[in-house]
Amino acid sequence: MLATWRGHRLSVALSSVLLERFVMVFTLVVLICALIPMIFARLGALPGLEWSMAAFLAASVCGIAFLMLADRVLALHPLLVTFGRSRMGQLLLALSGDTRRLFGSRWIIWSSVLAYGAHLNQVFFAAWLGAALSLDLSLTDYLTTIPLIFLVTLLPISIGGWGVREGVSVIVLGAVGVARADALAFSILFGASVALVSLAALPMWWADAKRRPREAPAPEAAV
Predict the structure, then answer these.
(1) 73, 69, 32: which is closest to 53 by C-alpha?
(2) Measured distance CA(3)–CA(115) in Å, rounded
(3) What is the pLDDT of residue 199?
(4) CA-based diameter of the chain, in Å?
(5) Model confidence over 190-212: pLDDT tens digits?
(6) What DSSP state is assigned to residue 161?
(7) With CB atoms counted within 10 Å of each terminal CB, which end of the chain scores lower, N or C?
(8) Does the global pTM surpass 0.85?
(9) Which residues contact 103 (CB under 8 A, 6 or more apart)?
């Protein structure tokens, strides 16, 4: 919304948001795949984790490939060409070109570095919060549990991950010896802290709204 207020096209704003989310999810899946030996060593064998993460990774790679080639695919058949002329098709075409520009340039390296930094920031914040709650966990414990919790909360089955995060936190943190009540309190405080920090963006929204030029009032009809 802020991007469109500043004069950017809707397709550009939409592409930036979707690609940011896609890079975050993809890097998180890669991180969890790399941590699977540590996860098994600390949490024990988790049935289905290996094949589910392999499926996530394969789906992510296929999704990237599809988006990079979508504008070429839409030119292969008259029906697809007709769809490409629709509003939804135009958005898909723009997203395809933006995906190719991102993943075909050096910017994907910096985007991935920032994404991994964000994931590690979640881990360090969780460790700080856990220390405040006197949870007897090591940094390795947080490194093997928080990415799993964060991945599940990204599923679009609740608002902001509330409810899902709490249930998964009780199960996963319980596997490393955290009491259910403590795990629930940790999850609620974690979600509340993220929401509170997000409120810092409100002044920027307000300042941007104040800078937007107001539409001129419509001229009155002549009597």
Answers:
(1) 32
(2) 21
(3) 79
(4) 83
(5) 988 888 887 776 777 676 655 65
(6) T
(7) C
(8) no
(9) 64, 68
